[in-house]
Design brief:
Strand 4 and strand 5 form a beta hairpin. The chain starts with a helix and ends with a helix. Helices cover 45% and strands 15% of the residues. It is α+β, with helices and mostly antiparallel strands.
């Protein structure tokens, strides 16, 4: 029984070494960060509580927020927050990422789901589909972030981008595109065609996940650039 418990506790670390971090569940990743449990909860039980809290959070938590989780003290709360902050500084900023599917941008866009107002983001890409930059172009009301083509493509021109991916959040949590979302996407796709900076996807982010508008309606996007970019984004 004791050997079995030890094997269970080190399984996430072994899995990471053998299969990589992407093979681990959220609970397993949090268990590795926490390192150990408490007298009241095992590390796996505690990680489940933390995962449940983070999944339903509507804003970036504070130490005090996390301490309301049973068994999570100040030290472990600060460990969680430190990891979240490092992700924001390194993964969500200027690190080179090759975009071959919408999922490749989710780490860069994850912070949008916590925003209480709607933000419109333009991700600029080079000829190899690597991210040049992620620009928060505009923010607006709870359910509207007005965007004009000149605003959307100004940074793309400045970055000398070959193509762009658009993204915005729905503070309501839903990721279903509205009629306005379809209308602005058609307008920006048309502008991109004129500027020869095609829009290859428009991603909507919410607390419930994300939606790729290219997957919903690939014909809305420029057919003339249906090479590696749009084929893989539309899978």
């Amino acid at each position: 029984m004791e050997n079995g418990l030890i094997e269970t506790e080190i399984l996430p670390r072994e899995k990471l070494q053998q299969c990589g971090a992407t093979a681990l569940s959220n609970e397993e990743l949090i268990a590795l960060i926490l390192g150990s449990g408490t007298r009241e909860s095992s590390v796996f039980e505690l990680s489940r509580h933390v995962s449940d809290y983070l999944s339903s959070a509507t804003s970036i938590p504070t130490v005090e927020n996390l301490r309301h989780i049973r068994g999570l003290g100040t030290v472990k709360a600060t460990q969680i927050l430190a990891c979240l902050e490092l992700s924001s500084r390194y993964i969500l900023t200027s690190r080179a990422v090759s975009v071959i599917a919408p999922e490749d941008l989710l780490s860069r866009l994850a912070g949008l789901k916590f925003e209480q107002q709607e933000h419109f983001v333009v991700v600029t890409l080079n000829s190899a589909n690597y991210v040049i930059n992620v620009h928060d172009v505009t923010s607006g009301l709870v359910n509207q972030a007005p965007i004009a083509p000149r605003e959307a493509f100004a940074k793309a021109i400045e970055d000398r981008a070959v193509s762009v991916v658009l993204a915005h959040n729905h503070p309501s949590g839903s990721t279903e595109p509205s009629e306005q979302d379809f209308a602005i996407t058609r307008l920006l796709c048309a502008a991109g065609k004129v500027l020869q900076i095609p829009v290859i996807d428009h991603i909507i982010v919410g607390r419930g996940g994300y939606t790729s508008m290219c997957r919903l309606d690939p014909d809305m996007f420029e057919k003339g650039v249906r090479h590696a970019n749009i084929d893989t984004l539309a899978v």
